[in-house]
Amino acid sequence: MADAATAVAEAAPAKINLALHVVGRRSDGYHRIESFSVFTAFGDRIAVGPAPRDLFTVSGPFAHEIPDSAENLAVRARDVLRKAAGAAAASPALIFLEKNIPPSSGVGGGSSDAAAVLRALLRFWKLDISAEALSRIGLTLGADVPMCLHARPLIARGIGDVIEPVEKFPSLALVLVNPRVAVGTPQVFAALEKRENPPLPPLPKSPDTARLVDWLTATRNDLMAPAKNLAPAIGEVLETLNGAGAAFARMSGSGATCFGLFKDRVSAERAAGAIAKARPDWFVVATETTASAFPGEEH
Questions:
Q1: Model pLDDT, residue 294
Q2: Residue at which a domain ends, from 165, 184, 200
Q3: What is the pLDDT of residues 102-151, one digit of tens each?
């Protein structure tokens, strides 16, 4: 591990799509979406530091399930940032990834890793790159990376690159459950029956849990039906979350991770414990989301 005095650490939180509407398709094949996303205290961890040559190491419960080579988005993030920054980013760097998020689980794990690497290397190399330019660099790695660079409540439109931060949004207590079934995003999109769907309704002002649940019931995840057809275990997860007392349950992203919304962290912890005991073969974690800043506050 790099020298603690010079290493730079960044969180790579899970991204949860509370709602995900597919509203069209572009001529190049990319789908146009409207998504309301939040980010959790649970996630991966990134650290970068000096090294004699570029290095990439992975630890954590899911380290054995991801590539530890140039194919990994974390490594690709280093390479695209170095190409954009030129000589200012020439010094070698060690990237350390603690992989806590199950791969291919619909919560943006790889994209969040890439975003965390970009943020960490920006500090490590002391680069003068604006947030807008960094977002453009992130977009070359994937449509979710600009969202993950923000890592606060937001609405994303376009292919995910048009971002509107959501102010005054509270922290939420969630239970995340994944049945340990990998669902391929391209396969889910290919199975969509309808690609021209209504947009998101306006968010409620000053939402508490009750108002948010009312709003969520008027929204959708348009990828949930095709994902459930590909992975029927998703339906079982949703039934389990509802049975455990969730005020609302839905699949995130293209699956197979589902979230349950609970009134507080204690209730979420209790439900997560019961689900994990009943289904030790599933991935289960209680967490909370990061609240958004108020106008004028630093993110």
A1: 53
A2: 165
A3: 998 999 999 999 999 999 999 999 999 999 999 999 999 999 999 999 99
Query: Which pLDDT tens digit goes with each residue over 248-283?
Result: 999 999 999 999 999 999 999 999 999 999 999 999
pTM: 0.94
Catalytic residue chosen out of the listed positions 15, 99, 113, 222: 15
The continuous run of DSSP H or E covering 96 comes out as strand 93-98
68 annotated active-site: no
DSSP element (H, E) containing 269: helix 265-278
CA 254 vs CA 158, 159, 297: distances in Å = 17, 14, 33
State whether 107 and 225 are in the same domain.
no
The gap from C-alpha 296 to its chain's centroid, in whole angstroms, comes to: 25
Residue 226 falls within a domain, yes or no? yes
Q: Which of 99, 144, 222, 228 is catalytic?
A: 144
117 and 47 belong to one structural domain:
yes
Answer yes or no: 113 catalytic: no
Give the C-alpha separation, 174 to 209, whole Å: 12
Average per-residue pLDDT in the chain?
Answer: 94
pLDDT in tens, 10-37: 999 999 999 999 999 998 888 999 999 9
What's at 113, amino acid-wise? D
Q: Residue 209 in contact with residue 245, Cβ under 8 Å? A: no
Instruction: Answer with the one of 142, 165, 188 that is the final residue of a domain.
Output: 165
Q: CA quadruple 185, 177, 70, 130: dihedral positive or negative?
A: positive
Do 79 and 155 sit in the same domain of this protein? yes
- Structure-token match 């000096």, residue found: 50
Q: Residue 71: which CATH number?
A: 3.30.230.10
CATH number, domain of 259, equals 3.30.70.890
